[in-house]
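Hey team,

Filing this mostly as a record. A colleague (T.K.) asked me to run one chain through the structure pipeline before their review meeting, and I want the input and output archived in the tracker in case anyone asks later how it was produced. No errors, nothing strange. Just documentation.

Input sequence:
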Amino acid sequence: MKTFFFTILILLFSTGYASAQVSVGEEAPDFTHQVLGESEGTNISLSDLEGQVVYIFFYGAGCPHCRTNGPVTETEIYQTFKDDTNFVALGLDTWDDPVSNNQNFRNVTGITYPLLLNAGQTLVDYYGGSGFYDRSVVIGADGFLKYKGTTFVDSDYEDVVDVIVDELAILSTSSEIDNDSPTSIRLDQNYPNPFNPSTTISYQLASPGEVKLQIFNALGQQIATLVDGFQASGSQSISWNATSVPSGIYMYRLIAGGEVLTKRMMLIK
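Output structure:
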């Protein structure tokens, strides 16, 4: 009997069913996947999007109803929120289809937000079995799962929109409080993110003084200095044109008032 019990345990762990399935209210596990249309090594990680509300469409590039319902995620969800700097949308291919199939999927659905490849294991490990596709997930700016769809995306997109509105409202309220009482330095997430080729970086200074805003690549090499001088207190913003650098993850660092703040951003060409 003991031998049978341990055999079952081994089978469970070896097939991946022992992985923790995340539920609403729990922290969303990190993942990293390659971006469709980019060179190998150009990836997006969930942790890159910390502080933003993330919508995820789990799809199969060859899934008929995913191809039918994909446009709903573009028109009803992404286009609704794409101008909000605190919102990001991603598509994750859970069928691990080849690049050509995913490119065809993009063309058929008209999806313009980033699609990530070979995400089948992320699905199985954290969000459901192999049948969990044509589904929506929303992750809050705090990194916790706020919504996990149980039906096709054309059936629950209104619920998804409501959740995103609520999560963005939380960030908006927090921002208004900060703006009313600028007692500390704040570095905002760049917008748009991911971007190509230009993005805007905004920040808030509690008091006037010397300010540096620098850009670094993933190797830690400084590639640009956007600000280096005296600035007044209050809200500031500056644009960065990344035409001369390749796709990838970049860090931007703000030095002001004795503080150093850093955030990540994704350039996708």
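Quick notes for T.K.: The mean pLDDT is 87. The first strand starts at residue 32 and ends at 34.
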